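re: ur question from earlier - yeah i can do the single chain one, its not a big deal. heres the input i used so u can compare w yours
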Amino acid sequence: MTEDHVTTLLQDAGLWQGDVTLRALKGGYLNEVLLVSTGTAKMVLKRFAPETTGTLFPNRPQDEARALQRLQGLNVAPRLLKFWPDESVMIYEYAEGTPWTKGTADVARILLRKESADPEGFRRRPFDPVGILAEGDALFARCSAVPPGRPIPRDLGPPARLSLIHTDLGPGNLIGHGPNLRIIDWQCPATGDLAEDIYSFLSPAFQILSEHTALTPDEDAEFWAALARPDLETRYRALRPYFSWRMAAYCLWRSETRPEVDVRNRYAAAYSAEMTQMDQRDAD
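and the output i got, formated as tokens:
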């Protein structure tokens, strides 16, 4: 996106303060993300690639805009400044800081703050073992082979309440630390089970895909102590094998289809980590 175009957008939104400079930010695997400076103000401009289908992580600009609006005032996500749906472009506040590297208690606390957001009106994610396994099965069907060890579904009731979930809560989507920690990249939010967001943060696959090492047992313990919700821990542990099966399927599919060698290798490592975690599930 050119400086002239960005300047026009800023002027349209009443955000222009003078000369504009642009710097590309690391924005995942799909969208163009720019740090925009104008005068003393810094903000992020995101231009969305076409919406993806047939994936766990659809790319939906309207849903990101809606999620940011729902989260305003909760100290969870950046504030949306302007959204141009016809151009699939949005501008939101720049979250100061670097991607998350440590402090699992901070992540537990931001998940609890997020629970105040209205979860209705987004796509629905399955929160029962049968539904989660079915999504994994559909992804494995695209792969060269299906591994052994598919978890046996068990009867689990619905969560106590539905939540607005991010669904892609790896370290790369967590910026800052302490009370200034923020969750970014809300292009695939859903109405679902908070246990899914807990899983996506604690999962070795999501950590590896963000180029972070898997969490240690001490980091896990720190997270649960800060969350202080034994009911959620029990539900997470019951659902974890099914989430792992689905995420392993996604990673294997991506490892076989992504064009970039380094990305394929990262997905292959994430797949192996999820399968190892599934093998350890009976030890919990």
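The chain has a mean pLDDT of 94. not sure if urs matches, ping me
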